[in-house]
Amino acid sequence: MESLHFLYRTVPGRMVLKVLTQPSVSEICGRFLDSSLSKCLICPFVKKNQIDLSEYELEQIGSFNDFFSRKIKEDRRSIDRNSEHLIAPCDGLLSVWKIEEGTVLPIKQSHYTVSSLLRNEKIAKHYQEGYCLVFRLCVDHYHRYCYVDSGKKSRNIHLPGIFHTVRPVALDQLPVYTENSREYTVIKTDTFGPVVQMEVGAMLVGRIVNYKEAGMVFRGEEKGMFQYGGSTIVLLVKKDRVKIRQDVLERSRHGIETPVRMGEVIGHA
C-alpha cells in the first residue's frame, strides 16, 4: 500500500509511474520472463506465495511465464454443468456491483464507469441495472480462465492501456491512474442473454492470451490465460437475467471480497 501511495499520490511517484507504464518497459520485462534465464525466479516465487505444486502439470516449464500460466490438473477444478447456474470463470476474489447511472468500479488501482471500461456507450447502456462482477486474481491464483456459458461469441475487442496525468493539486481528489490494457467479447447465451466477459491486464507485465476469435464456445472451455502480473476478469450481465448468491452480495455491500474457484456456482438464472 505504501508503494501504491508513492506511485499514485506523489510527484516523484508519478514520474516513476509514467516510465513503468510505457509499452517498451512491459515488452522488455516480458521478454525476460519468457526466457530460460527467468527460471531462477520460480523457486523464490513458489516459496513466498506458498503454492501447492501438486495441483499443477509441470512437465514443460521453460520460463517463469510458463510457470505463472501453468495448467492445473483436470481433477482439481469441477465445472458445474447446470445451464441454469452462472459459474465463476476463474479462481479469484469476487466483488459484485449493481450497475446504475454513475456507478464507479475500482479495478486495478483505477476507477471506471461501465462505459469507460468498454469504451463503448452503446454496449454499456444494455447493462444498466444489471450486474458487474469483478474477479481479482492475486499472483498465487490459477491464471487460466474459462467461458462462463455456452453460446456464440463476438470477436475479441482489445483496448490498449492509457496513462492519465492529474495536476498535483488534485491528487487528494483524483489520483493519477492508468487504464490497464484489456480485452473483451460478448457471448450470446441462451440462459443469461448477452454476457460481456473481459480480461484486464496488470500495469507492468500482464499479457492477455485469448485463444479464439468469433464463433461457438462452450461452458467450461478454456478461454485463455494471463502471463505475469496480477489480473482481473469482469463479467457484465443484463438486468433480470441472474440472481447472484446472497452471501456474495452481502459481502460485497460491506466491501468484502468472496474467494471463488473456477467452475463454482455464483448465481442462478
UniProtKB/TrEMBL annotation:
What are the UniProt keywords, alphabetically?
Decarboxylase, Lyase, Pyruvate, Zymogen
Q: Name one Pfam family in it.
A: PS_Dcarbxylase
The answer on whether this UniProt entry bears the keyword Lyase reads yes
Please give the superkingdom of this protein's source.
Answer: Bacteria
UniProt-listed InterPro entries: PS_Dcarbxylase
**What's the protein here called?**
Phosphatidylserine decarboxylase
Query: What species is given as this protein's source?
Result: Maccoyibacter intestinihominis
